[in-house]
Design goal:
seven-stranded parallel β-sheet; five-stranded mixed β-sheet
């Protein structure tokens, strides 16, 4: 099978020739820019710049030779046309992060500054103190404002913003042409991340402390917000998907972390009333226009109790399969979705085993976990979340080699 055929076979619950694998297909299956060059060196690959495509999480965009070396089957196209399927030298500019990543390239170096203590600031994002590996916005971007009237979006202003940010004809043509070139440049599955997102988040519009309360206090207002988001998302879908449905295999529909380490962020009743109907219509319209395109939902944490409702929304793929959260083993997640929805991720515990365990412990966990998640197919391999700076290249290589050795 080609890489694309392998991924599609898995997502259609057929048995691929070997396990399909991902690194960097979207912004929660990537690798830290601080560890990327060490991985290239450990793989024996020639020098290439560290291209940082996620400024907040400081993620490197993997080059095709890294994907080749690790046996990965997916390339990304982001909503602004950025891809790792081929070189786009005009998009990148050098910035060395105060000497911490001498070979780094960023999209726009103009927003960065560094002070005498080594703290790097990025306008509109936050700061990264010396010794840290990610930017940290104030209150992690989730301010705890629980006194007085709950903050809420101004719907008139939000509608104006959504109208202003609708895809233009020129943007659609450019993205269409990029997706065609990506399709023609290789045989990997093509993952579009961005531009058709629904944007319904339990931690949206005011933050994690605010929006769940607003869902409880004023569900009618939340329905208005979600109806507005859906209206504009469907307009983008109807304009864009006819142009790319033959060149894109997977599309990211939302990134919404409904779980924490132990439980849900809000009740299943809140999901069913305020989220499920909108995601159902969103997925249905994508599948109507592009029947072969698979929809992908990213939702971290202990969300096992929501899985049946996520299936009900028509979602094809669930990521990141954070089975250590909430104490449900991989087999419980697999049985919930078997034959109904694919899983993408979950290959190793990225909070404990991967950073803290030995190479052997990483290999052993992959050998135990992957055959369970891949049983009957409906599975694409990667770590539960991004490969952080603390993860050594030896563990990354062991992770992917152990996955390749799994019988499926």
């Amino acid at each position: 099978m080609t890489s694309r055929e392998r991924v599609i076979a898995a997502l259609e619950f057929r048995r691929p020739d070997v396990l399909p694998k991902d690194l960097g297909g979207m912004r929660s299956s990537g690798i830290s820019a601080f560890g990327y060059q060490a991985l290239r060196n450990a793989l024996g690959l020639p020098w290439k710049p560290t291209r940082i495509h996620d400024n907040s999480q400081m993620l490197a965009l993997p080059h095709p030779d890294v994907l080749d070396a690790l046996g990965c089957d997916v390339v990304v196209v982001e909503g602004d046309g950025l891809t790792n399927a081929f070189e786009q030298p005009g998009l990148w500019h050098p910035y060395d992060f105060g000497g911490r990543i001498p070979d780094a390239m960023v999209r726009d170096a103009g927003g960065y500054s560094v002070d005498s203590a080594g703290t790097i600031r990025l306008a509109g994002v936050g700061e990264m103190p010396a010794g840290a590996y990610v930017f940290n916005p104030e209150h992690a971007g989730q301010a705890l404002v629980l006194e007085g009237e709950l903050p809420r979006p101004d719907l008139r202003a939000h509608r104006a913003w959504l109208e202003k940010n609708l895809l233009t004809d020129a943007q659609i043509r450019e993205l269409r042409d990029t997706c065609r070139r990506v399709r023609d440049s290789g045989d990997r599955a093509v993952f579009l991340w961005g531009r058709v997102d629904l944007g319904l988040c339990i931690h949206g519009f005011g933050g994690l402390a605010v929006y769940p309360l607003l869902c409880l206090e004023d569900p009618d207002f939340v329905h208005e917000v979600h109806s507005l988001q859906l209206e504009y998302s469907l307009r983008n879908i109807r304009a864009l998907l006819p142009e790319i449905r033959d060149t894109v295999d997977i599309v990211g529909t939302d990134g919404d972390d409904w779980g924490n380490q132990q439980s849900l962020m809000a009740s299943p009743a809140t999901f069913r009333d305020l989220f499920l109907p909108y995601r159902l219509r969103h997925n249905a319209e994508i599948h109507r226009i592009a029947p072969r395109m698979k929809t992908f939902l990213h939702s971290c944490g202990a969300i096992h109790d929501l899985i049946d409702m996520i299936v009900e929304t028509g979602t094809d793929i669930l990521n990141p399969v954070q089975w250590p959260a909430g104490g449900r083993p991989p087999a419980a997640w697999k049985e919930k979705v078997r034959g109904r929805m694919s899983l993408w991720g979950g290959g190793v515990d990225s909070q404990h085993t991967l950073p803290l365990g030995s190479v052997r412990e990483v290999e052993d966990e992959v050998a135990r976990t992957v055959p369970v998640l891949a049983d009957g197919s409906g599975y694409v391999f990667c770590s539960i979340h991004n490969l952080l700076a603390e993860v050594t290249p030896e563990k990354v290589i062991a992770l992917y080699r152990a996955a390749a050795a799994c019988r499926i």
